[in-house]
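Colleagues,

For the teaching module next term, I've prepared a clean inverse folding example: a structure given as tokens, and then the sequence designed for it. I'd like students to try predicting residues themselves before seeing the answer, so please don't circulate the second half yet.
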């Protein structure tokens, strides 16, 4: 028993001595690093790269209509800016990947896209539009460069890698054969709508919303000029159409049954019935313009898989679905690998920004 009582303090002293010796042999620990301070205009950092306030403000101005009424509240503005920053964070991550892959947009790419957006618009009108939104030409081109670079890396890493086989097309057709049995003729239509009145629900990629008849007339003339110059109808619809439902789909209205045409305005119905597939017609009703495209016309009856429009439409649908899935997964994985700090969000939560 005595030995056990004596052994405890000896063991404890030995442990203390050993710990003291070990501690003495180690270098003093460095003081904890102070939290990094950032300039007030740094609103986020992505893998060490700053996202500044002016970039967020430019992106915000491109996403809102400056003449919209009523004006958004301060809370709504901040909510939108937080959403804008989130998109810019994703963009910054993809830009880094584009740069690492040598896929940055070139000056020639930017100039071509810039000039394409100016087709049908005089320099004075275009510059006035930029000024209204608080953009300089350089800032606008910088935005184009970022968009093109991101698109290049998405094309290379995702879109171009998606292929749809004939077997996949055939399987879809066989599983959905009833969809291709038309009880009446159908018309595949697309539209670009321009009105003389502003609508707060209008959303297009250029945030372009005519507010007067003169503005609407000039806008339609510009779009028609772009189409004549070879512009893509779907792209122009996404950029300029003022129809909130179809603009995001490139103006695509899908197949419209012949019976449904009896319920639309006679000028639109007559234009569809007179048009040939691939043609475009501009219809004016009151102070609204509709640039209408007849993509295809299908007779009644069961359409076979050999029908080009059937095969192509199935392939496009399946490819679009797969690309959307792969893009979503690609971006999620890229964001998971990145180190991100959203300072604007932190400042809002702390009450520093209201």
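(Answer key — instructors only)
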């Amino acid at each position: 028993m005595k030995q056990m009582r004596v052994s405890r303090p000896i063991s404890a002293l030995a442990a203390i001595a050993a710990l003291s010796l070990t501690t003495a042999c180690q270098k003093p620990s460095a003081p904890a690093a102070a939290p990094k301070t950032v300039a007030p205009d740094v609103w986020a950092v992505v893998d060490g790269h700053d996202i500044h306030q002016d970039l967020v403000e430019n992106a915000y101005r491109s996403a809102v209509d400056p003449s919209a009424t009523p004006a958004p509240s301060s809370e709504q503005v901040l909510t939108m800016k937080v959403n804008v920053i989130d998109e810019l964070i994703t963009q910054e991550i993809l830009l880094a990947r584009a740069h690492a892959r040598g896929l940055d947009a070139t000056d020639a790419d930017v100039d071509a896209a810039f000039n394409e957006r100016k087709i049908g618009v005089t320099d004075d009108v275009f510059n006035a539009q930029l000024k209204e939104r608080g953009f300089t030409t350089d800032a606008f081109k910088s935005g184009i460069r970022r968009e093109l670079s991101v698109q290049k890396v998405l094309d290379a890493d995702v879109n171009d890698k998606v292929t749809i086989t004939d077997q996949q097309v055939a399987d879809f057709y066989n599983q959905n054969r009833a969809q291709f049995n038309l009880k009446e003729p159908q018309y595949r239509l697309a539209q670009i709508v321009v009105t003389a009145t502003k609508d707060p629900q209008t959303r297009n990629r250029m945030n372009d919303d005519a507010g007067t008849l003169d503005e609407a007339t000039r806008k339609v003339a510009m779009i028609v000029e772009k189409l004549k110059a070879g512009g893509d109808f779907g792209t122009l619809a996404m950029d300029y159409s003022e129809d909130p439902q179809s603009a995001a789909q490139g103006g695509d209205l899908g197949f419209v049954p012949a019976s449904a045409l009896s319920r639309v305005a006679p000028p639109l119905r007559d234009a569809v019935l007179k048009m040939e597939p691939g043609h475009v017609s501009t219809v004016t009703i009151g102070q609204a313009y509709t640039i209408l495209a007849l993509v295809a016309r299908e007779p009644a009856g069961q359409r076979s898989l050999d029908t080009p429009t059937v095969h192509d439409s199935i392939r496009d649908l399946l490819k679009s679905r797969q690309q959307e899935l792969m893009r979503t997964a690609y971006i999620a994985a890229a964001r998971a690998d990145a180190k991100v700090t959203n300072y604007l969000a932190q400042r809002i939560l702390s009450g520093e920004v209201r």
